Amino acid sequence: MTAPKPVRLLKLVSQASYGSWEDAYSDNVERLYRLMFARTGNRQDAEDLTAEVFLAAVPRVRLDVSIGEVRGYLLSVARTVLAEHWRRTLGRQVTEIDLETVADEYAAPDPRPDKAEQVRRVLDALPERYRTILRLRFLESATIREAARQMGVSIANAKVLQYRALRHAAGLFDSDGS
């Protein structure tokens, strides 16, 4: 009679860590995008929410921890970002529609000249490719695919450019004192 095989209760987790933010981004962006797409059902929201996850996580997550810990943290941030998205999207109960109230509430806000000037200064300080990707994505509301096509790069390259451009812009914004 043979002895039964022991049951494995614990899984050995690697203590490897990411070498850089680019490595962490590349390893997790598709996983988080698929999660967001599965929850929202549309590409635009999934892309935007994935970018929000990384923007929220960048200042707080440490790269000296294990890959599993980084993935767990990104998943927690993704849940929070998704919850906030649904709160913004579905947080209002509508039983009767008053067209005047809707028009007033959802009208575009008056542009603030100080913010527009600040955006112009930051964009002017960016390298051309960073400025182009941010202009296409956020000022012209192009999808990542459309922006990639217009810039003549792959979608993956456009995602990396957007990520790096946002990081660079955030650094300029912080050093600008604004």
UniProtKB/TrEMBL annotation:
Instruction: Tell me which residues make up the RNA polymerase sigma-70 region domain.
Output: 25-88
The chain positions of domain RNA polymerase sigma factor 70 region 4 type read: 117-168
**What top-level branch of life does the organism fall under?**
Bacteria
Q: Which family does it belong to?
A: Belongs to the sigma-70 factor family. ECF subfamily.
Which keywords has UniProt assigned to this entry?
Answer: Sigma factor, Transcription, Transcription regulation
Mind telling me which InterPro entries this protein's record contains?
Answer: RNA_pol_sigma-70-like, RNA_pol_sigma-70_dom, RNA_pol_sigma70_r2, RNA_pol_sigma70_r4_t2, RNA_pol_sigma_r2, RNA_pol_sigma_r3/r4-like, WH-like_DNA-bd_sf
**Is Mitochondrion one of the keywords UniProt gives this record?**
no
What name does this protein carry?
A: RNA polymerase sigma factor
